[in-house]
Specification:
Number of strands: 6
Order of helices and strands: EHHHHHEHEHEHEHEH
Organism: Lentzea atacamensis
Helix content: 40-55%
GO molecular function, one term: hydrolase activity
Strand content: 5-15%
Keywords: Hydrolase
Number of domains: 2
CATH superfamily of the largest domain: HAD superfamily/HAD-like
Structural class: alpha/beta
Radius of gyration: 16 Å
Number of helices: 10
InterPro entries: HAD-like_sf (IPR036412), HAD-SF_hydro_IA (IPR006439), HAD_sf (IPR023214), PGP-like_dom2 (IPR023198)
CATH topology of the largest domain: Rossmann fold
Protein name: HAD superfamily hydrolase (TIGR01509 family)
CATH class of the largest domain: Alpha Beta
Length: 209
Amino acid sequence: MEAVIFDLDGVLIDSEQVWDEVRQDFAARHGGVWTPTATRDMQGMSTPEWGAYLVSAVGVALTPEEASAGVIAEMEKAYAAHLPVIPGAVEAVREVASRFPVAIASSAPAVLIKVFLDVTGLPVPVAVSSEECAAGKPSPDVYLLAASRLGVAATSCYAVEDSTNGLKAALAAGMTVLAVPNPHFPPAADVLAQVRVLSSIADLPGALT
C-alpha cells in the first residue's frame, strides 16, 4: 500500500450534524419542506448536486447556486465559531502522514476543506473536493482524482470513510477501505460487511501495514 486518503466530514470533523442542521434551517427559511430521506440522500453529494437537490426535492425557492452558496456561508460561520475536530483525528493524520503520502477526498466544498487545514495545520499535500468532479459520492471520481494527484494507483491506496455513500465510492475506486462508522448516521450493514471496521479514528495508525 502506497498512500492513505481520508474523507473529511464524519472522519476528521464531527460535522455531519452541523451540515444537517444548517441545511434544514436554511431550507425552512427559504420555502423548503424537509423530507424523511433528505439527510441521507445528500450525504456524499457534491456541492452542485446537493444545491440542486435542495431546490428540486426540498423545494427551496432559490436557484441551486444560490442555495449552495447560502448554506456554505452558514457553514463558514459555524466553523468560525467552532470547528468540531474529532478527538484523536489530528494525531492520527500526523502519524499516518509520517509513514505514507496522504490526501483528503471530500464532498465538502474546497473553502471548508481549507478552513480545516488552516486551523489544524495538518501536512496534507493533496485535498480534493468533489466540486471538481463530474459526480459526487457514491461515484468514485473524487477518490480517483485524489490518487491521481498523489501519483499512485487507486488500488494501492487505503481510504478512510464513515458513511454509506463514501464507503461505496472508495470501494468503487478499488481502494482498501477502512470504516470509522458515523454514530449519528450509521452506514448500511451490507456495505460495512465489505470493509474493515475500526472503533475510532485513533485506531487507524495501528491498522495500517
